[in-house]
Amino acid sequence: MSDTRRRVKVYTLNEDRQWDDRGTGHVSSTFVERLKGISLLVRAESDGSLLLESKISPNTAYQKQQDTLIVWSEADNYDLALSFQEKAGCDEIWEKICQVQGKDPALDITQDPIDESEEERFEEIPETSHLVELPPCELSRLEEIADLVTSVLSSPIRREKLALALMSEAYIKKLLGLFRVCEDLDNREGLHHLYEIVRGVLFLNKAALFEVMFSDDCIMDVVGCLEYDPALVQPKRHREFLTKTAKFKEVIPITDSELRQKIHQTYRVQYIQDIILPTPSVFEENFLSTLTSFIFFNKVEIVSMLQEDEKFLTEVFAQLTDEATDDSKRRELVNFVKEFCAFSQTLQPQNRDAFFKTLANLGILPALEIVMGMDDLQVRAAATDIFSYLVEFSPSMVREFVMQEPQQTDDDVLLINVVIKQMICDSDPELGGAVQLMGLLRTLIDPENMLASTNKTEKTEFLSFFYKYCMHVLTAPLLANTAHDKNSKDLQEGSTKINPVCPDNFQTAQLLALILELLTFCVEHHTYHIKTYIMNKDLLRRVLVLMNSKHTFLALCALRFMRRIIGLKDEYYNRYIIKGNLFEPVINALLDNGTRYNLLNSAIIELFEFIKVEDIKSLIAHIVDNFYKALESIEYVQTFKGLKGRYEQEKDRQSQRLNRYRRDARSLDEDEELWFNDDDEDDDGEAVEKSRMEDDFADSYGKYMEAKKVSDIAGAANGANGANNNGKAAAIPPASPVVTPNNSPTSSVKTVALPATPVVKTALVGLVDYPDDEDEEEEDEEEEEEQSPRKRPRLSS
């Protein structure tokens, strides 16, 4: 359907009293059999799907607002609105609604809304009482008018009737005429009454009245009435501010007069809502919902009109990036773009997407790269706000732009490096701008918002880019303030001899705390990249220098960084900490803190408690071996004794493992000794194999002793050759089912039942016995012992 007169946007009012855009389509009024009546249908212009199907009920109150809006309620707390592209289309549908309800299309409301509490009272009102009767608009009757307006606010029906009466008699303009008379006469009593009247009329919450009150020839008189609050000794000078202080600046001349008028009107109405009117009470909070909607739709219209004017925005960005543009002009341009982005926050998601894509196509990010590097603080602050709007809207869009920047340029001009430098160079003593920029950086480097579905390589590519081109800029202040002692350029491994001078400047300490917070975030979310960076730069050692800072919050940030690293329970990190002896500055800080019970004390103890509870063996052994003497006097917590206990348990466990594999010494006769010697000469690796072959070897040993006893020379020779040649256990056919070897005086081999047929053991055995395999070997041995009815002998090596 190409008829633009019927082109509409469908809005619904959400729980926060904000309008949600449900889509754009074309409206028609047709009889729907299922609903048994004339209904409003809106079909989406994109795919023809049904956006709205609403029967025109005879009892529903429809309102026409601003010539292009129709608003109504379908159920409790479910308000709908159609925003027409053209006034003609709105008039057509309005006439159809009025025709169905039998109402006059000249009115802007078709029904008096009735709430349940008023139904009975409404039935008692005489039919002739269509409107509230207003007193004559005269100075002497102002008090009576004020009382009337105030009295109707509690009754929805009377509010409606008063609104109709004010519209039908052009009463608003007559009241504003009286205001000018009272001000000329300095009639304070009359002015106070007019304040109550105008405030009450605003609380009637009627768009038709707002159209009159906020028109160019009335709005300043409305503001004037609201200056004379009876609660104030002296009236406020709001009109003076709006006409003299608040200046309308056109960075690029706006040729559209309707757009100019809409901008002026929106600013003044927003000023009335935010500044002049007092904060509404709980009972009044819904009285100004239509005023909020009035401002909302105005802002939507302004953004749409500006967005559609391609020449205007193109000129804005051309001047913004032009080196010839003077500083004051550029400041105004940046402030315009900032306000433009702020207005866009009223748009619905799909419209906001289109808005920011338009800005991206016009070159918003290259422009920001230029203005954020300028010396003007106001320009940089405004540019930061614009950058925050862009990052919140689409971090991926910003990341994509950054990675597409030409790599041949200097790293300093990259957008992220410009942002980092602005964070580092923030002149605010409280670092307000730096905190904001740090939050934006964290959003950009957060893997959680990197798109996995559309761009699977975004995370890898961007993080590689960030650590290659940007990380050194971020850590520069940290490394500069924790430099190694200049007299010892070549520090030995494990040495902690670092220049103990720490930044005592509060602002520098705050900056370092922000950088550490960002690095801690990286440790948690960038496992591979940050690990490589920490190892290469020996970063943890440099960070722990800050444990000496007089600023406790900075020492805690350094400790938190180490705590996150240990919390990963990564053995690479653990070996790095042990090799660098990096617990020393932490323990020194604990000892220097003495017996003071403070946050630093608790945080350090929690670090060691975590190591104890998680039983990180390598760290426990390192701490106990190197620092237990210094820590054993701390008895107000059991953490360090617990670490010692864990350490002793582990030592006992290891010694038990060794004992389990230890063999009894035996006296070997010469033949046996020769047999072992030959075997050792044949294969130097036999000692390694024995630990896994001991059971098989025991069988071979028994068979060998049997072979000697029988004195079968051929059999004995074969057995020896089998042992020597293969390095494996020999299998000799037994002469009898039971053998009791007693040739060896110290033999502890028990009576063994041998198999009736020869058994040849050819199991493959690894050449290296790793410590990790010990547990598996123990389990295997236990299983064999449970399954076998005989006890195999253990031989000492």
TrEMBL record:
Record bears the keyword Coiled coil: yes
PP4R3 EVH1-like domain segment(s): 5-101
One GO MF term attached to the UniProt entry: protein phosphatase activator activity
Ranges of compositional bias, category Polar residues: 739-750
InterPro entries on file: ARM-like, ARM-type_fold, EVH1_PP4R3, P4R3-like_central_dom, PH-like_dom_sf, PP4R3-like
Coiled coil stretches, renumbered: 644-671
Annotated ranges, domain Serine/threonine-protein phosphatase 4 regulatory subunit 3-like central: 144-649
Entry keyword set: Coiled coil
Region described as Disordered: 673-694, 726-750, 766-797
One family name in Pfam for this protein: PP4R3
A Gene Ontology BP annotation from the UniProt entry: DNA damage response
Job description of the protein: Regulatory subunit of serine/threonine-protein phosphatase 4.
Name of this chain's protein: Serine/threonine-protein phosphatase 4 regulatory subunit 3
Organism field: Perca flavescens (American yellow perch)
Taxonomic lineage from the root: Eukaryota, Metazoa, Chordata, Craniata, Vertebrata
